[in-house]
């Protein structure tokens, strides 16, 4: 069938070939300096604090990538192929071959990036080229091996259990590396970083194991059940559609709906009161978010564990500076906003489809205010813990940091609610020409909606990260945070 | 002297044009407490549009009054009016029973409790599932259950029979008749003449504009 489709296509001309080659050359020219800079930035000798933090971040990335591969497939087909080729007598491996090859190429490229990151974390005191090659091999082996294991997990429950165990091991390794970066067991990372070259080569031989797993995955392609592939194809089809339509909000809907579909829940009546406050009207509407979050303990635990990531980032980028590097500030801000946004699904649903909001007929401003409580609590608590971790890691200018988390909470809630209730991407907005290329303002404004308000409301705290905390900045943060949330609640009455 | 009953709906010369094409033209509708009105007609004749006009979700020419004022998409209006149209986006993390509990918790004294609604709408066996785990017809029942559980004075139903089996349509007719007998007003757009007949509804037939 694919042959038939191909036969009806126009034959490739010299212009097509020239375009492909030119595109590849441009990609190489653009990527080569970045790769050169990355390799050039590899430190000569390893710093144990930096190595531990770097390894922890890499392990977290690997765990996240494996979890994503498990959630989205990884082997999936286009909607047309899933409909016409999958449920046909064609050999399954032949149907899946193209997807598998694309997956292999993507994981190999990701593996190279992983290798460079690994070398950047561990340093190269000697035999730089050999170490680079070994690191690349380890990175590629990890990525290809992990992806292959995820493919095998689609075909067998046993491999799925092993993949879950591998994710757990990666998370445990991240925790261990994070601890070593703080001091205890630092000799472990020092030993890994200073390992003699043969040990590196031995580690690189992991690529042989990865190749074996990949070969096994190739064999298993023919055994992946159609049901699993159809589910994966639907999920990745939805994700692709969301990406092509530049509407990432759809993804959160899909993920949330997929989470609850088919799940049996223990229904409980709505509480009559929450402490001294009666749960009626707007508060009863907002209670949905508390109930949903109470059913996601793993997510809450991951959120709590993620409080350490800004400290790890600070150590990985500037292990001995008493100032927060820009990357750690970015991770801190994104994490606090993400924590607040984890409790805004009800607001998002009502903004996208106000049918249930009309049915509840609770006053909109009161509902919005009630819905700000949980994001403020989560965002504030997360920021407090993350600042405490950063302070413990010695990455913050000295001073009292503990009040800033709570003082930023209202602004984080306002930003998270604004983010949840933003309208879809407006593709009719103009494209701006800039020195770094064309900037489509629609997606850009969409991405900034929410983050803008949070940044504005947390401006004094951001200033404190640069200059150090002071009572005047804390007072300014208290006023700015309260003012931001009040203004947002007052000016945004729509559902 | 006979007591004057205030009209719940008073619509005169309602017209809607979308993209230059007329959808509704000069539609009149009056409904009093206890009235059941079935709006019928072929696809595209403007039944759903008329309901959206009555709900204040669609601008229209002419004059529309609901409870003596222009309909408006605001909480004060929805205190008395319920609209059941397309399937709503269910709140994530809540079960079927909890969606009904939410209605009761928000509105205070309800027309029935969650357990009674589950039984009446034959959803007891699915009470602990998320609404997305239900079949199309069961989700429609849940929508109707949420609408009928909360206190209201006017029901606007867009094809309430959508996805329902024949037996439940009979029960729905009974539920709507009881709602009207309690003083409520029902305006429903429907393609099911038996539902209109079983409720004893006054039929408003729309013609292509």
From TrEMBL, chain B:
The organism's place on the tree of life at top rank: Bacteria
SMART domains hit by this protein: AAA
Stretches that traverse the bilayer: none
Domain ABC transporter: 9-209
Keywords for this protein: ATP-binding, Nucleotide-binding, Transport
MF GO annotations: ATP binding
SUPFAM superfamilies xrefs: P-loop containing nucleoside triphosphate hydrolases (SSF52540)
PANTHER family tied to this protein: ABC TRANSPORTER, ATP-BINDING PROTEIN (PTHR43335:SF4)
Family statement: Belongs to the ABC transporter superfamily.
Protein name as it appears in the record: ATP-binding cassette domain-containing protein
Source species of the chain: Actinomadura yumaensis
């Amino acid at each position: 069938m694919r042959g038939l489709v191909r036969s009806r296509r126009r034959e490739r001309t010299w212009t097509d070939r020239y375009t492909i080659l030119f595109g590849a050359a441009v990609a190489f020219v653009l990527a080569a300096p970045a790769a050169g800079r990355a390799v050039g930035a590899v430190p000569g000798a390893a710093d144990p604090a930096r190595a531990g933090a770097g390894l922890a971040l890499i392990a977290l990335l690997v765990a996240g990538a494996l979890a994503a591969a498990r959630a989205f497939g990884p082997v999936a087909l286009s909607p047309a192929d899933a409909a016409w080729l999958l449920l046909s007598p064609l050999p399954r491996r032949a149907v899946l071959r193209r997807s598998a090859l694309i997956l292999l190429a993507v994981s190999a490229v990701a593996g190279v990036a992983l290798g460079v990151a690994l070398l950047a974390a561990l340093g190269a005191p000697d035999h730089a080229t050999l170490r680079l090659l070994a690191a690349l091999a380890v990175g590629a082996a990890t990525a290809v091996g992990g992806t292959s294991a995820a493919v095998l997990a689609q075909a067998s429950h046993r491999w799925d259990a092993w993949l879950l165990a591998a994710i757990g091991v990666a998370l445990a390794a991240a925790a261990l590396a994070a601890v070593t970066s703080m001091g205890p067991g630092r000799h472990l990372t020092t030993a890994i970083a200073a390992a003699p070259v043969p040990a590196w080569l031995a580690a690189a031989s992991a690529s042989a194991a990865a190749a074996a797993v990949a070969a096994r995955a190739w064999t298993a392609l023919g055994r992946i059940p159609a049901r699993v592939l159809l589910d994966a194809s639907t999920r990745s089809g939805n994700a692709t559609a969301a990406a092509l339509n530049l509407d990432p909000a759809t993804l959160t809907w899909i993920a949330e709906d997929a989470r609850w579909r088919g799940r049996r829940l223990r229904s409980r009546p709505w509480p009559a009161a929450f402490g001294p406050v009666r749960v009626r009207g707007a508060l009863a509407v907002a209670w949905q978010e508390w109930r949903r979050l109470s059913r996601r303990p793993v997510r809450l635990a991951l959120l709590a564990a993620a409080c350490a990531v800004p400290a790890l980032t600070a150590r990985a980028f500037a292990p001995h500076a008493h100032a927060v590097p820009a990357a750690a500030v970015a991770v801190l801000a994104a994490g606090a906003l993400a924590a607040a946004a984890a409790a805004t699904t009800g607001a998002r649903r009502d903004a996208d489809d106000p049918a249930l909001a009309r049915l509840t007929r609770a006053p909109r401003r009161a509902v919005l205010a009630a819905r700000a409580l949980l994001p403020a609590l989560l965002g504030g608590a997360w920021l407090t813990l993350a600042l405490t971790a950063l302070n413990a890691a010695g990455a913050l200018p000295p001073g009292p940091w503990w009040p800033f988390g709570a003082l930023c909470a209202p602004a984080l809630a306002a930003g998270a609610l604004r983010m949840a209730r933003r309208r879809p991407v407006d593709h009719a907005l103009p494209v701006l020409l800039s020195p770094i290329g064309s900037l489509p303002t629609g997606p850009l404004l969409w991405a900034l909606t929410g983050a803008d308000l949070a940044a504005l409301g947390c401006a004094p705290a951001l200033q404190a990260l640069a200059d150090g905390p002071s009572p005047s900045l804390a007072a300014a943060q208290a006023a700015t945070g309260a003012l931001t949330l009040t203004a947002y609640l007052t000016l945004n009455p729509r559902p | 002297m006979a007591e004057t009953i205030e009209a719940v709906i008073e619509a005169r010369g309602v017209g809607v044009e979308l993209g230059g094409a007329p959808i509704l033209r000069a539609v009149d509708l009056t409904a009093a407490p206890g009235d059941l009105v079935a709006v019928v007609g072929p696809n595209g004749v403007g039944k759903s549009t008329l309901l959206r006009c009555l709900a204040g979700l669609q601008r229209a020419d002419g004059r529309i009054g609901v409870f003596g004022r222009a309909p408006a998409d605001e909480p004060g209006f929805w205190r008395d009016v319920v609209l059941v149209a397309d399937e709503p986006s269910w709140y994530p993390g809540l079960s079927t029973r909890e969606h009904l509990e939410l209605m009761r918790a928000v509105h205070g004294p309800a027309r029935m409790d969650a357990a009674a609604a589950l039984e009446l709408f034959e959803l007891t066996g699915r009470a602990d599932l998320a609404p997305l785990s239900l079949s199309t017809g069961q989700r429609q029942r849940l929508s109707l259950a949420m609408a009928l559980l909360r206190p209201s004075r006017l029901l606007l139903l867009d094809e309430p029979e959508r996805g329902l089996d024949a037996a439940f349509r009979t029960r729905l007719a009974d539920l709507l008749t009881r709602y009207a007998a309690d003083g409520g007003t029902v305006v429903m757009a429907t393609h099911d003449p038996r539902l209109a007949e079983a409720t004893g509804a006054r039929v408003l037939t729309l013609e292509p504009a």
